[in-house]
Amino acid sequence: MICMQETIERYRRHTKDTQTNSKSIEQNMQHLKHEAATMMKKIEHLEVSKRRLLGEGLGTCTLEELQQIEEQLERSVSSIRARKAQVFKEQIEQLKEKEKVLAAENARLCEKCGIQPQQGSNEQREILPYEESSPSSDVETELFIGPPEGRTKRSRLQN
């Protein structure tokens, strides 16, 4: 009789656990369905918002909604410009560091070759545009034919 009662008791516990698990699973499923529906609404809202930010479907917007969209776009552009300025600043810093490394390398190579390095930084030196030779230039621009001692002027180099 004791074995029979133990068996019955185990059966009752098992069915009670199964019912509890079943209710728990059902509650979990309801929660997940509710969460999925909420997520679908959020996705739909984000898609509508995205279309409006891209300028689509603005015909149904009120004046207040249009002003909110404008403000949001202005904040976004401001944020993008700030990020762009930050990236440029970082790149400038990297290039300045690279310039220092290259200047040190240049000085080392000049010293190795016995050449005097140029004084002044690149910021102080100004790059001048190409200038044509002046008439008082030492460069010959005429074409001579023959050996150097007996050269005679035959023709001029033409552009």
Automatic annotation (TrEMBL):
A GO cellular component annotated for this chain's UniProt record is: nucleus
By its UniProt entry, which Pfam families does this protein fall under? K-box
Q: Where is this region: Disordered?
A: 116-159
Note the coiled coil stretches, chain numbering. Answer: 29-112
Domain of life, per lineage: Eukaryota
A GO term for molecular function: DNA-binding transcription factor activity
**Which InterPro entries does this chain map to?**
TF_Kbox
All copies of domain K-box, residue ranges: 29-119
This protein's UniProt keywords: Coiled coil
Q: What protein does this entry describe? A: K-box domain-containing protein
Q: Which PROSITE patterns match?
A: K_BOX
